[in-house]
Specification:
The chain is α+β, with helices and mostly antiparallel strands. α3 crosses α4. Strands 1, 2, 3, 4, 5, 6, 7 and 8 form an eight-stranded antiparallel beta sheet that branches. The protein contains five helices and eight strands. It starts with a helix and ends with a helix. It has a single domain, classed as Methylpurine-DNA glycosylase (MPG) (3-methyladenine DNA Glycosylase, Chain A, Roll), CATH 3.10.300.
Amino acid sequence: MKINKEYFLNEDVLFIAENLIGKYFFTKIGGQLAGGVITETEAYKGTNDKASHAYGGRRTKRNGTMYEEGGVLYVYLCYGMHHLTNIVTNVSGVPDAVLLRGLFPTHGEELMLKRTSKHKIEPSIGDGPGRFSKLLGLTTEYDFQPVTSDMVWLEDRGLVIPENEVLKLPRVGVDYAGEDAKLPYRFRLKNPDVLLK
């Protein structure tokens, strides 16, 4: 049920990004469990992807985690306020990553409501990468955290998502990437509120 490290070493980041739709993502921080079903992802494909932090082989203090062996989190701060959570994939030295953009809560809902200052779990509560991280308590403190640990892990619980229920779309907020901004590297579950009840 728990997804092992080998899964994240796959050299096809697009496969992983699409395959993660319907998988469960969990955190156990401070002894408190939170988790749910991944409903939206984006793939970032190495040094040739103009939308990637690693385009052209760029390596900085912030993006260094992208060059690690697959199976760790790459968490960074966007606009100084939103923590965005990625999973690094592929072998060491190849900076592929999947940005986690959507979560449908299934575990620890009360904790998630507290983290987001909401009063009710709505289908849209986990829409967007900033909300994904907030629901699960993830900040830059968890950059480089293995996703096969007792603190952060993924599970395949056999949820079958029909192929026609997964939309393939251009990525969000990467207009600077020119033609690469139009690539269908975003995968989104069409009707999570219907499928996951």
